[in-house]
């Protein structure tokens, strides 16, 4: 399944403060009233998620090489499936976090450093998602090719 990257810019976020804190005087009452340490935490968490996605891709690539060999076990299949599910969840979480960060940084009067940090993170996430999509496609193709001939298109009648 293909994910759309257009939604990463945070445009779907409301302009009210989603963090529940009171808006301080002299600031726009946007989603900017997030504690700087909370903001950095969100950056670090998302960065760690991007790392996790890339690690999972590396692990999936290793498993892919074992498909159809003597190392192709039920355990390998289960591991592949579990890793794919975990990666899907991590991608969803990371995409939401990027939206949240975009909203905060966009409405912020703070330094451009955070904008640069956000852009870098967006690019890293986007690259990781593309790598994941590519390996997923290869796994699906190889798994399909390994099915006994009768099971590929039509169910075999016993």
UniProtKB/TrEMBL annotation:
It comes from the Eukaryota. Signal peptide: none annotated. Pfam families: Syntaxin_2. InterPro entries: SNARE, Syntaxin_N. Residues 31-144 form the Syntaxin N-terminal domain. Residues 1-29 are annotated as: Disordered. One of its GO terms (biological process) is vesicle-mediated transport. One of its GO terms (cellular component) is membrane. This is TSNA1 protein. It comes from Toxostoma redivivum (California thrasher).
